[in-house]
UniProtKB/TrEMBL annotation, chains A, B, C, D:
Residues with PTM N6-(pyridoxal phosphate)lysine: K197
Pfam families: Aminotran_5
Protein name per the record: Aminotransferase class V-fold PLP-dependent enzyme
Organism for this UniProt entry: Rhodosalinus sediminis
PANTHER family with a match to the protein in the record: ALANINE--GLYOXYLATE AMINOTRANSFERASE 1 (PTHR21152:SF24), AMINOTRANSFERASE CLASS V (PTHR21152)
Length: 399, 399, 399, 399
């Protein structure tokens, strides 16, 4: 029988802070009441602050981040439009699959799982696209499957350098609110996220930032859509209402989570993620394990995908952690299944929790058959957390 | 300042029972844990019992009932398919609008707001459709805007009598779980509902029952879809998982609400709705007001749409109830705006609550300028609830 | 099976406001943490505002109001001390019984159940007590069993007029926070209340206001005490701590309930109780029933004790309300058992709830065999609530 | 700003399991309802199972464990009765102080803080007490201040061996439900506990097991008492009611916590405490620190009191843990202040949490100036938890 706190280290849905849980524990209310907008209108503004945008419009669709992926596509593109996408992990692969299903002509660049978005190849193709046939470029800012953070600003530069007019789509589901994300500075046109990662809520809201340029595109885009129609939302959101029943409890939770983020300070939240992630990585390295991410400049501050030694089955590591230690790690997805386990270190987190993750990881690895020198992982993280270890030069450069 | 219990009588989202609230107040958990299916798999079975189906498959999409509308259409029809729909209230009108947006050729039958689905006209058109050009017939079982319950079984008979093969779509958002609904008996192919009405949960789940025939149609249907794709759900649901992050808290709530329904007994739940609704209607009639529903055989047991006298503005009634008495009534939608207020009487409800609704309605009507003889409404309901009034013959026949 | 909201009209424990429930739903915390006082110290100040005292000290004992009764006695009196008390209801009777058990020499004045504290008789006895043998006078401000509010200020005047030095003990369990109570103005020395009435919390805190004079008495009082020792509390409370583990969740709830009270305004809270109580009383009278309270000047604004006709058993009324209508009324206590039911109308309450109480009362009375003309009770209350009825002259004078 | 889970390792109040939190989050209810006993009566039985008694009666007083101390004394003893007590930690000292305040003649045996109850000295004095002047012997089963578990069975044997008739009082506040406790087998007459330790609830219930012999004594005991009077409770508890407003929410929580205990199995709960405590102790020893408990046979399985090196201030350790790592350790009480910090390891706990405690302890010790070789503490615990370390022979013998 399970006892004690659940140790949740999947890279989403993430731990819900107590204040958010409190806030959501409310009776039902009238979503058409005259003062309903007092609750909702501020949420749009708060999300704009999280996206670091002043010019974009924000949408909250009842659904998941996947729904927001679809909303982004169907509202701004035409059937048959050519789009440029990379596949370098499970989530970028799924987004490309969705684009194909929705009738886009997807120009796919495959990169190793562990690499970032292939900026140079994107730049090359955009430069070669003299007629502007590429209507949109898609970037998975943080590939949750591999623990890789890509350089969105560099993709923007690539577009600008060849004066390319394509829309820039960014999947920020596991980065926004946790890793530096700058919608306006980076000229992101469609920024996708969900409620269940850095926003520390249950799943249920697909969130979308849409630039003025993308809003303009939505007026002429001919792809079929109904549930995810921007225009319906625009009309109702003006007063803080929604075209269909919204998840009111999540709005109360979002109010609380935005308050938490702004009280801590968005920059401080991001710095905390960097600090805690570095502790986890040092612990992992001290255990003698390697990350999937190919280079330190790609390390994700929200999730670490960790390769187990070849003779070990990562599923056994995850299974032991779950069944014996009430601890959930993320599994290796698709081609990484069995080779990788993932530690999500995003959202409502602190040093003690990261040390729990590393300690349980050591025990679970031992139970899966690895020779583990207990304590090395936590020790490396403790040195970092207490300031006894030196800060890494590289990360500063990378961010 | 508002004090005391909120009196929520909108026809959804409905009051959340305490046990459901308790059940949802849980920390986040791993939606890919090996035992996650223990939570979810039973929910599909429970929903089948609520739909009264043994043969259909059930889907739970993160989203609203509107999303389930879309899922039903996009998974089973082809672009340009002809479908037969009626418009006799705001929700049937919106569904027809969605069908058009998604590229269907909608054959619309307009009926008065207050009428039911025009079964005879449907029968006539289906009979005339010798080539089977009509691919689907849509029925809004309970038109929430007008408080009208239509006769789904009669539409099924109309289809059967001319051996018509069209799929039967039914919007049961405000009926399923509250008003008798029989998916198998009535040969419903796509039954749509949401979490926030008879299931007494927050919004956030679009629920769909899909017949074997409709599942077969989904394998060849060519309409574009991604988020709402049945096949992805089928694959993942087998083990109790989902293709994207599901709203786990709602699943816990659904477990509790299904338990409540089955402990009371689905038949008893339906009988209770009938009894409480009759009390409300008697109260309304004792106040000298009329329902929008044209005939007692159409009266909805989940919502009553009530016409105010011509000299009264229903918005003022609703406003007074809300601002002075912490009570939410539903407003008149679209063409009924200002002429109608609605009392939702579905979900977690009892006699005392219905009497509160009637009492506050009397006070709010008085404050909006109507000459009210206080106490008549509640008195009529009390007579009914205590058994001092006779049961209506008509309802028995109608149901 | 019970469905819908529970209609709770016992005169305590009272309905818990949602914000209070939210506030209490927190994980456990360290009651010796350096910042624990940030939570607790303000609570003492808030309670002083509720007691309308600037000079008294406030104690919060883990326990019930009965515990605070005991704390008041054991900390300020010596064994064998003579005290003056009245018995005019169940709670004043129990307090006198406690005083005897604790070794006091209780001079009891018996008055009819339905009368207030016999001020004139108290005055007479105090005037006659030339040697000052009476060490304390006890007043039950609001006798919850009979729905009678007594005149504490008049008892103070009686003391002052004969320059009597006795301590003035007041049981304000069902008045403080709901009915005007003025500790400093009235020279109350020991003001007793609990968390579960006007403070709208679960039971668990016995609350005590102690005047400077009573604090001085506590330094020499020789009655045995340990758990309820003021000195231990004084010492620890200075930093916001407690001599033994306090009910932290209740402190969070108290923070929320004090916020609610001060946001509404204490005067407004009291006015609201008066207004709602008047509605209930008018309803009761319109039903043809009488209150236990002997005179309108004694009517309690927190609870109405209602006599049923002689041929009716009040227990059946209460039973029918509970079993059929999910409604709890208070029962007749001790000698009033079977003759009386009580409607508590205090705490988190509004007009709709009062109308529910009256409506259910009519149905329950009918089911218990009374000939009820349905709707009269609610109608009278509605007239009052909507301002269609005239304000009673008497109440203004009385308060 | 604090983020992430709070790491609570004070030896009470302990972490509240989620199911208990859920259970307590209920609206208020009528504590005199006819079915109220359905909730409460089973609780008495459940507590008897936890106390391992079939013959004793159980009381639940609104209050803290300190209140239950008082209830035990005042209901069974006469003023001036001689009682035998030991002082070997802060809580045994406080109990002795209470006994004196309440007018007992306390024969105190002082023992080192870190020693157990001086069984031999008790035996000697009991043997010498030929006239049976000692009316009661008090044992602090688990001295929370020092992390020492004493041998209650040995005290019983000492009583039996000289055929002494004194009542046996046991403070089991921090043992019952976590450390083996056998009321009937050990002939305990008054077993005291509270809700906020092994029962995993908020503070608010003082719980008492009372043997038949002690119940008989209560009928003639002459000590003054009112709030804590057994007889009032006995009378009302028969139907599941209480003489004053009980903390209903805690009853719901207790239902849940008893369910958790019995689902896991009381023996398994005790074994888990032993296993987790052993891990913590091994970790502490691997850090080079010593426990206050003088001998392994005295080690408490619910709390470890840990001496810091002489040059370190334990308050700084506790302060660093709290302010930097959101972690609460217990402080050194009274004479141990600054010399000791305590890790509570009782209630709802698992391996990961113990490792968090050890990891944070290492960091906090380092920040307080100790030279710490990071990772040693967690490593020793991991070896134990994974079975890589050998089981200690001694513990088996001791328990």
């Amino acid at each position: 029988m399970r006892t004690g706190q659940t140790h949740l280290f999947v890279p989403g849905p993430t731990n819900i802070p107590e204040r958010v849980r409190q806030a959501m524990n409310v009776p039902m209310q009238d979503m058409r009441a005259p003062d309903f907008g007092e609750l909702t209108l501020d949420l749009f503004d708060g999300l704009k602050r999280v996206l670091r945008t002043e010019r974009a419009r924000v949408f909250m669709f009842p659904g998941s981040g996947t729904g927001a992926w679809e909303a982004a596509i169907t509202n701004t593109l035409d059937p048959g439009d050519r789009v440029l996408m990379a596949r370098h992990g499970q989530f970028s692969t799924l987004w490309a699959q969705m684009a194909e299903r929705l009738g886009l002509e997807v120009e796919v660049v495959d990169a190793p799982w562990g690499a970032g978005v292939p900026v140079k190849e994107f730049a090359r193709r955009l430069g070669a696209d003299r007629e502007g046939r590429i209507k949109a470029v898609f970037v998975t800012h943080n590939e949750t499957a591999t623990g890789v953070t890509s350089d969105v600003a560099a993709v923007r530069r690539a577009l600008d350098e060849c004066f390319h007019d394509a829309l820039l789509f960014v999947d920020g589901v596991s980065s926004i609110g946790s890793i530096d994300f700058r919608m306006d500075d980076w000229g992101v046109d469609l920024a996708v996220t969900g409620s269940q990662k850095g926003l520390m809520l249950p799943a249920g809201l697909g969130i979308l930032g849409v630039s003025e340029k993308a809003m303009a595109a939505s007026e002429t885009a001919t792809m079929r859509r109904a549930y995810f129609e921007f225009a319906d939302m625009v009309k109702m959101n003006a007063g803080g209402y929604f075209p269909y029943t919204p998840p009111t409890q999540l709005f109360h939770g979002l109010r609380a989570s935005l308050d938490l983020i702004f009280e801590e300070g968005l920059d401080a939240v991001i710095a905390r993620h960097r600090r805690l992630a570095e502790g986890v990585r040092r612990g992992v390295q001290a255990m003698g394990l390697e990350l999937v991410a190919e280079h330190p400049s790609l390390y994700s501050n929200t999730v670490s995908a960790i390769r187990v030694p070849p003779e070990i089955d990562a599923r056994e590591v995850i299974g032991a952690a779950y069944s014996r230690y009430n601890t959930s790690f993320g599994s290796g997805l698709a081609r990484l299944d069995g080779r990788v386990f993932r530690i999500g270190h995003l959202g409502d987190l602190n040093e003690g929790m990261c040390l729990t993750a590393l300690s349980v990881a050591e025990m679970a690895l031992a139970e899966a058959g690895m020779q583990v020198d207990f304590g090395r992982g936590p020790a490396a993280a403790m040195s970092w957390f207490t300031g006894a270890a030196e800060a890494p030069e590289l990360r500063v450069a990378a961010e």
